[in-house]
Structures are given as structure tokens and as C-alpha cells.
Amino acid sequence: MTPFRTLYIDMNSFFASVEQQVEPSLRGRPLAITAVSAESGAVVAASYEAKARGIGVGTRIFEARQLCPGIVFRPSRHRLYVRVNQKIAKVLDEIGELERIRSIDEFQVALGGMTSELDNAMALARQMKAAIRDKVGSELRCSIGIGPNHLLAKIAGKLEKPDGLQWLAPENMPDRIAHLELEDLPGISHGIRHRLRQAMIWDVRALYKLDPRHARQIWHSVEGERFVRALQGENIPLQDTQRSGYGQSKVLAPKYRPPARAMLVGRWLTEKAAERMRRDAYCTRRFGLQVRFLPRGGWSGSQTLTASQDTQMLLGIYQGLWRKMMRSRPQMISSLSIHMGNVQPLSQRSGELFLPLEAAKQTRNERLSSVVDQINRRYKTRVVKFGVNQEHFGFFENG
Fold it and tell me: Comparing 1-141 with 245-379, is the CATH topology the same?
């Protein structure tokens, strides 16, 4: 039988399960996690009790109340979920070889030797399920997929929820997933699905039989060939992605939608993105701002700059773009995002004689920004800020 190389763990209703773990009164009850508490806000995660009532990601809060009058709402607490993620990773790594943390609720474990055999891989999966329940939380369940590569393992992990355990390999492919739609497969976007249909590829069976070289032409990329080869069971390793930029975005709560208050939220997002960029030792050469208005419309603009990671400079560019945006006379702003693109490692930044700027070294202001980062990390809050801003906690911020 084909050797198995990957075990993929997908936590079930992770955010909601964590909340039910830390607050026992929520167990067995319909629960929805929200980013914004306003009635127009949307559900970002739901317990299985809520899913049984038709509530899922994207359901509006007022719609969830109609579908399930007794539903309980809780604000998202991303830092809490990160801490639980780290506990799960530690437990998994004690039992097997944790290869990657794929997302906040997905983990990839490498298989080899004895665990490359199906029976042993299944036994390892059951051991991991039990360890998560015993050492992290009794309310936490996961679905596990086993495969000869990461793609088939991930697909297998989606086949049975909650608390599932399935495997995929050339021995049971494509029959085992023939019932799935093309867009059910990870990596098949609406655009790729459209291209596949143009190529007369209508279902999973046809995709499985596709010549990988033809897939490269359909995708307009080598990724198409990699995808089909992986679907057919070849051991196609993940490729490390190249960092293209740093961004922060926020759908604004009603009280932050007036332009004066939204502008301060944008300053906060700029500080956060710049801090992340310095943490990874990158510099940006393009700063972009995108704003959506209420009831409709929007604005976007950008500015190029000498490669920098200086928060003060970036805030100055942000303010200049904001003034240009305000010429559109927005009444209310529904969302905004900033993006620091065209990045390069600090170690590759060349020097400039007339700035002055030493090659591969931080400027005085960049060193000052790094000191601010260190102080804020030490105290785990923003005790030092670059002027006035407005923190807007919500999805990915509460903790």
C-alpha cells in the first residue's frame, strides 16, 4: 500500500469549543462568536449546536437570533485561541513530529517509519485525539485526515465532522471523494473552477484523471501541475511562500465610522503593521490605503518610498493619503485597510549617501521604533504610542 507521510489535524468549531471549555455553562448550548456586537455584525464561528440550527460563518447576528432565539453570543478572543493553539501544538509534538502549524486550528504532523503504515497511522491519530481531550480540554474535538501528502491528508480531514478520522490514497481515490464538488477541494477557487469548466473538467473524477501538464496550462502556473500530482497521490512537498507585504484591515463598529474616528483607527493599524514588519526584519517600498464608504463607494491610493520600517515616516504617509481620501467627502466609513507592500529584507537594503542611510542597518528613527516595540512587548500592551490613535478591538484583537 502507498506509504502515508502526513497526518492533518483540523480542530472542530475551534473558537466556540474553546469558549465552551473555559465557560462550562455554555456546553451543549448554541453559541456564536462575533467580531462586532452590533446587530448588523456577522458570526465568525459557531458551535455545532448552533450549526444544527442553520447558523454558520457569515450569518448576521439578527438572523441568528431569528433562527435560534436562545443562542448565546460571545466576542472573539483571538489571544485566548492562540494560547490554546500553542497548547495543542505542544501536545502533538510530544506524541509525533509536528511539521507545521497550518493555521490557528489546523496542524500537520509528519509520518514515517512504522507510522507510514495505515494501521499505525490510525493508532497515532486516535492517540492524538485522546491527548488533546485529556491534556488541553474535554470539549475540544478534531477531525484527522491521513494521506501520502499534505493535500490528500487535508481533504481526508474534511470528510467526516465532527471528531472524524479518514484516510485517502491512490488505493481509494478518486471514488472516496467523487461526491465532492470541485470547489470543495482546498485550492480550487471560483476562478480556477471556471477555467476547469472551460477545459471541460466538470467533476472530481475528471480532475483526478487530468494530465498534470494540462493542469499547468489551465492554472497558468506550475501550481496546477503540483495540485493534480498531489491529488493523484505523489509526495509533493509544500513550498515556502515568499513574503509580499504586511497589511491590517478592520470592519468598523458603528461608533468608529465617522471619518475623524476612523482616521485614528487607521493610525493604530499602521502602527501594528509596521511593528510586525520590524519583527520580521523587513522594509516596505510602497504604502497603500483602501477605504470603503457607507452606503456605497470607496477610495484607494498608494505612495512609493525609499525602503523603510520607520513608523513615524509611515504614519506621515498615511496622513497624507487620508487627506487625499477626504476630498471624496465621505459621511461614514465602513472599513479600512492599510498595506505595506513591495517589501525587502532589511539585510538587503542598500545604502544611500545623501539620506544618510547605511546599507543593511536601521536608521536612528527605525532603532527608536524598535525600542518602542520592545517596551510594548515587555508590558504586553501599547504603553508607548506614536501620537494619538484609536484601538479597535474585535476579531484577532480581543484576549
Answer: no
Report the distance separating Cα 27 and Cα 131, nearest Å.
20
391 CB-side CA count, 13 A: 12
How many angstroms from the chain centroid is the CA of residue 181? 23
391 as an active site residue: the answer is no
Whether 396 shows a pLDDT value over 60: the answer reads no
DSSP code of residue 159: S
Short-list 240, 311, 229, 303, CA closest to 274: 311
Q: Where are the domains of the chain?
A: 1-141, 245-379
Q: Which residue has the cell 518602542?
A: 372
Chain segment 96-143, per-residue pLDDT in tens: 989 888 889 999 999 988 999 999 999 999 999 999 999 999 999 999
The answer to whether the CB of 85 falls within 8 A of the CB of 105 is yes
Q: How far is it, in rounded angstroms, from Cα 1 to Cα 170?
A: 9
Q: Is the alpha carbon torsion for 96, 100, 103, 106 positive or negative? A: negative
CATH number of 245-379: 3.30.1490.100
Coil, helix or strand at residue 107: strand
Q: How far is CA 276 from CA 166, 314, 370, in A?
A: 38, 13, 11
DSSP string, 302-336: EEEEEEE--HHHHHHHHHHHHHHHHTT--SEEEEE
Catalytic residue, chosen from 23, 63, 106, 223, is 106
- d(Cα 207, Cα 191) in Å, to the nearest integer? 15
User: Does residue 354 carry a pLDDT above 70?
Assistant: no
| H-type alpha helices, 150-258 | 150-158, 190-198, 204-209, 212-219, 222-231
1-141 under CATH 3.40.1170.60, yes or no:
yes
